[in-house]
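My current task is to audit a protein record that another person submitted. Thanks in advance; the entry in question is below:
***
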Amino acid sequence: MGTVLVLGVGGILGEAWTWGWLGGAQSETGEDFRRAKQLIGTSAGSIVAARLAGGENPRRGEDRIHWDAEVEPDRRPGSLRSALDHASRISLGALSPLAAPALSAATPGGALARAAVLARVPAGRIELRDLRSRIDALGPGFEGRLNIVAVDRGSGRRVVFGADGAPDATVAEAVAASCAIPGFFAPVEIGGREYVDGGVWSPTNLDLARAGEGDRVLCLVPTAAMGTAPALALRGLAAGWRLATGVEAAAARRRGATVEIVGPDAGAARAMGSDLMDPRRRDDVLQAGFMQGARAAPPSP
């Protein structure tokens, strides 16, 4: 029995909110999230999971590991919003497998649909070299608890680095692959295959939780803040992702686990805005996440 920590997608600001929330909750309860029974990270969540596995303490409130050092705000070729808008212009119908992956993830057609969409989204050009070096410096390893999710760009299938049968990769390589937003960052090549953002499969990949009777699954979903975004495509994605997460959570509950799904509250959502790749908001979002985590956490016994 123990806590399974599921950390979802959310861009630069999703990473900041997640780290802040964990720091606030830990400061109030004393729970050491570095000791989680399992750490499942997707995209932004993969950075946080790797930081915890590498021994970083969120209670200190530091935000030192970023994936945007190569991307200057005034020279970025677009935002997360514009990348998703581009995908939606290709075809909202084709985008639907990305929006509700839990409903078709296990079927060959689901993987093929993803591969077809990914083939039509131009590969990003920005390399995540700085992110890799920062994660490497922490020294995390795949010791059985850490799972990092990415998607094989050619096949459309999910790959869970750190799980049995997964391709050999360092944690830094896996995190970069999990963060490679299609059309924004360059795919990451591992073992001769190209990998992209794990959020293409699911916003949380909560179904990977090894949780049963008496276990607690704590799932942090930064993209819940997109539900009030002005762009229709983002609101549609948020709705699909909520559905996917709900389906995955129901399966864990049937196994007897307690599942808590947490998204940004109103204050954190305002701090995040609609562009989750805007580094200028990071400090405010980190603080908003910390305050939310401290309020949401039950008092220590």
